[in-house]
């Protein structure tokens, strides 16, 4: 069974939707952008989030202190790195028993990573589709794919890349807001694959 992360959660209504759909991971974005939230918002949402759903903090070139503050608050239990973070930063997080997801672009895939999970995304959450059939992905780490995934292309992306996780944000939105119907539909679909 493929697992799924719903990312870019911003409101308590978003939390209600994921609590009903039961994805495996929920993402809170602390990096600048349309989905950015602050620690206070994240704590309120984590408090309401089903305890069986792990929360992931998404950062881009943040300081170690900033990430540790979020982890130590209890808002998230995993860190996703979308920037130019070094293996040293990854190790410092792992030394504190924090699972780390490191994101790479399709044209810059590493032969190995020290992170716990390898994610492939088209950019900094820019919603651009990836031609999955053109990629040759070799990794000994759990693979997460992202990049303009939705109900129309998710099955093909999963069949082509055989990921451990898929990550969606805009693909479960309507008019810029998370759509509970789309979230529920995609979670059920992915869990069947």
From TrEMBL:
Q: Which SUPFAM superfamilies match?
A: Ribulose-phoshate binding barrel
**CDD domains recorded:** PRAI
Q: Name one Pfam family in it.
A: PRAI
So, what pathway does this thing act in? Amino-acid biosynthesis; L-tryptophan biosynthesis; L-tryptophan from chorismate: step 3/5
Q: What is its EC number?
A: 5.3.1.24
Matching InterPro entries, A to Z? Aldolase_TIM (IPR013785), PRAI_dom (IPR001240), RibuloseP-bd_barrel (IPR011060), TrpF_fam (IPR044643)
Q: Name one GO molecular function term.
A: isomerase activity
The record's top EC class is: isomerase
Q: Which UniProt keywords apply?
A: Amino-acid biosynthesis, Aromatic amino acid biosynthesis, Isomerase, Tryptophan biosynthesis
Reaction catalysed by this enzyme = N-(5-phospho-beta-D-ribosyl)anthranilate = 1-(2-carboxyphenylamino)-1-deoxy-D-ribulose 5-phosphate
Q: Report the leader peptide range.
A: none
Domain (N-(5'phosphoribosyl) anthranilate isomerase (PRAI)) spans 4-188
Family from the record: Belongs to the TrpF family.
Stated name of the protein: N-(5'-phosphoribosyl)anthranilate isomerase
Species this protein is from: Companilactobacillus mishanensis
